[in-house]
Amino acid sequence: MPHRSLWAGFAGLCALLPLAAQAPADAADPKEILRRAMRMDAHNRELERTYTYVERHETRTLDARGAVTHRESTTWDVVPLRRSMYRRLTQRDDKPLSPKEERQQEAARQKTEAARQKADALRDAETPAGRQKRLAARERARQQEQRDKDEIVEGFDLRLAGEEQIDGIPVWVIDGAPRAGYKFKPSQLTGIVSRMKGRIWIAKSDYQPVRIEAETTGTLSFGGVLARIYKGTRVHVEYTRVNGEVWLTKRFGFTVSGRILLLKGLHEEEDSVYSGFRKFSADSRLVTGEP
After folding, report:
1. How does DSSP assign 83-104, residue by residue?
2. Is residue 76 situated within a structural domain?
3. Confidence (pTM)
4. Residue 290 lies in a domain
5. Checking DSSP bridges between strand 84-92 and strand 95-96, what pairing results, if any?
6. Helix axes 30-37, 128-155, angle to 10 degrees
7. pLDDT of 199 higher than 60
8. DSSP string spanning 198-261?
9. d(CA 20, CA 37)
10. Domain range spanning residue 127?
């Protein structure tokens, strides 16, 4: 996917918002809603890993006036594969892959599965001390992530802007922006989100995000000075409830201006649309559109 690594940081904004099924004591306090929610999102993450779906990603290159000069798309099947998600390319520009590309994709899948199988074998053979060290490192990472999220809630001005309906779902509308003069503790997540403002629509029935719209308020740097994203980059996220048990992303898109390697100008729109959500089973196959 073109420039995918540059946009991974935007996922941090989305990760802030999985909300709990129980209402906080004061549902009119947007800061309290988010604070309690971000401590209870593990269940939603675990359920997400049990689903397979189709992702269609489209990139549109823009000229200085915002007109589209080039368009390309890729379609992927996404399935769990040995405890992690695996993406297999199935189409380019909405056309099936050539036989050669199909063979390449199958070879890549087999290579990935073999590598993950080897990693599983090493984990099964680890000593009690090694296992304790691995779990301790994972717990430290989890705690650091939670501290980052708490820091962002503390550093944002949040305002309940009103109530609406989206697809028949009653939602709260919350506006948020960094507090003037607040000094965020440095981390990858706070470094991104502290330069963004936005609006969040949250379902009143189960306190889950339905839509997010955000915009950068300053320049973001990735990889030191390798890439920069300018003020005014816009992000749009939509969620859908699946099987009455989990909210999953159904669209993630953004419009961006910036530079790569500080030389190549970048003016793009990108959209990822997710569909065909199914509970994963051993019979699931990596074939787009399979019933």
Report:
1. TEEEEEEEEETTEEPPHHHHHH
2. yes
3. 0.80
4. no
5. antiparallel
6. 170
7. yes
8. EEEEEETTT--EEEEEEEESS-EEETTTTEEE-TT-EEEEEEEEETTTEEEEEEEEEEEEEEET
9. 5
10. 4-279
- Beta carbons within 8 Å of 69's beta carbon, 6+ residues apart: 61, 62, 63
Compute the distance between CA of residue 199 and CA of residue 236 in angstroms, rounded to an integer. Answer: 10
Q: Which amino acid, 145?
A: E
Residue 16 lies in a domain: yes
d(CA 236, CA 20): 22
> What's 8's DSSP letter?
G
Does 291 fall in a domain?
A: no
Tens digit of pLDDT for each residue in 30-56?
887 676 656 656 667 778 889 999 999
Beta bridge partners of 170: 165
Length of the chain: 291
Structure tokens at 195: 């330069």
* Measured distance CA(9)–CA(214) in Å, rounded: 13
* Unique residue bearing structure tokens 């965020």: 184
Dist. CA 62–CA 241, nearest whole Å:
33
- Cα(255)–Cα(273) distance, integer angstroms: 15
From CA 94, how far away is CA 101, in angstroms rounded? 14
Angle at 10 between CA 72 and CA 89, to 5 degrees: 35
Residue 41, token pair as written in the block: 């999102």
Residue position matching structure tokens 């390798």: 226
Q: Which amino acid is at 58?
A: E
DSSP E strands, the chain: 51-62, 68-81, 84-92, 95-96, 156-166, 169-178, 196-203, 209-216, 220-222, 227-229, 234-242, 246-260, 264-279
Yes or no: say if 217 and 197 are a contact pair by the CB < 8 Å rule.
Answer: yes
Number of domains in the chain: 1
- Which pLDDT tens digit goes with each residue over 75-91? 999 998 887 889 999 99
Q: Which amino acid is at 175?
A: D
